Amino acid sequence: MSRLSRPLALCGVLFLIPAVSVAAVIHVPGDETTIDGALLAAAPYDTVLVAPGTYFVSLEWPATSGIKLHSEQGAHTTFLDGRGNAVVITVETGVDTTTVVRGFTIQNGFAQVAG
Question: What is the pTM of this model?
Fold first, then answer.
């Protein structure tokens, strides 16, 4: 193999290697100040990791599959609270079975059901 053909062969091999995406961990309140902000910043398969506390929220889940929303220390220390007048989490479209919400106490939500 000549000196010129070695770099060309190496370039050809590099094109055959698929790009690997690495999922990120977004900390709340470290990297993003709100859970909403972290969900909007998340790419598919990222994890939003929430510190203990009570978060007064009405979350609209983005149309992004695979986001994992986890608490750092479990449901006994991390609360999502709708203040009695809001839906706590709304998921409308764009998610699949790889989307996860784990480790929260969801409380004081409200939804008016038509029917």
Answer: 0.79
Average pLDDT of the chain to the nearest whole number: 87
12 sits in which H/E element: helix 5-16
φ, ψ of residue 59 to 5 degrees: the values are: -80, 135
What kind and span of H or E run contains 41? helix 35-41
Under 8 Å between Cβ of 107 and 87: no
Nearest by Cα to 72 from 26, 23, 22: 26
Which token pair is 74? Answer: 């479990």
In the chain, where the domains are located? 20-109
Query: Phi/psi of residue 81, each to 5°?
Result: -120, 125
pLDDT score, position 13: 47
- Of 38, 96, 40, the C-alpha closest to 70 is 38
Stretch 42-53: mean pLDDT, rounded?
98
